[in-house]
Amino acid sequence: MPGVSIRGHFLWHELMTTDTQAAAAFYTRVIGWETQKWDQDASYTLFTYKGVPMAGLMSLLPDARATGTPPSWMIYIGVPDVHVTAWEAQRLGAKLHKGPTVTPSVGTWAILQDPQGAAFALYTPERIPDINAKPGLGDFSWHELATTDSRAAFSFYHDLFGWEKTDSMDMGPAGLYQMYGFGKRTLGGIYTKGKDAPGSPHWLAYVKVADTKETTELLKQARGKVLSGPMEVPGGDWITMGLDPQGAAFAVHSVAPKGAKTAPKKPRKAKKAKAVRHKVTERTAKARKGKQIRRK
What we know:
It is a single chain. The chain is of the alpha+beta class and 296 residues long. It is 16% helix and 40% strand. The protein folds into 2 domains: 10-125, 2,3-Dihydroxybiphenyl 1,2-Dioxygenase, domain 1; 140-254, 2,3-Dihydroxybiphenyl 1,2-Dioxygenase, domain 1, CATH 3.10.180. The protein contains 5 helices and 16 strands. An 8-stranded mixed beta sheet has the order 2-3-4-1-5-8-7-6. Strands 10-11-12-9-13-16-15-14 form an 8-stranded mixed beta sheet, with helices on one face.
């Protein structure tokens, strides 16, 4: 795809966990993914949906276990040149945890931590994916950052990836939920987590499913933990946040059925703060600092 810019697009997702077999069984049951061994390394498993790779699965490395790194999902964001972007990220206040590394036939990647402490990865793939395709079932459809300073965090990612503000939602005392993306395409949201909320700044990725309510029941049956949901969000879509049995945080999202009616807005009272349209529940996530992972 000549001329296509992958800068700032979410290209890959990877789960590092303490029990890959249990994690594979959980996500195949709850999300509907299938699994297959990567032909270049049998220790790395691909989550697929109708034959299309959606994410990766691997064991936590010994050094990560030794430092108490919990199971978690890592997001990989596309850039034209990992070396250049990693240098720029550090200039903007990020910390480098895993320097630029080449995985043959896959691409170059690096692991960093933004100025507020959320871990993320840079990725330049050897083959450019179709970044204009809308997320289908089994794909990741939303990326949300819970941080200690949403304004500073947005400024960092805007400078690094060119993200633009697309829309926002007033959450009352909880502050502003700032959505970001490119032009009319929204990729996710950023908000400031409460001071008393557990966990450090972190990214949360949402997987698109057919029915959030049904998926939530499957999550419970598969011994996962529901953190919040199922709940309706503006526009009529539904979401649930949860933890898999090993403790990795993830979320699911389903779109509003065609023709579905959404709850009417409540009238605003004069001289009072804006009514909160929907409450966004704080995520529970363990500290992710000091992570070092290898990309397959």
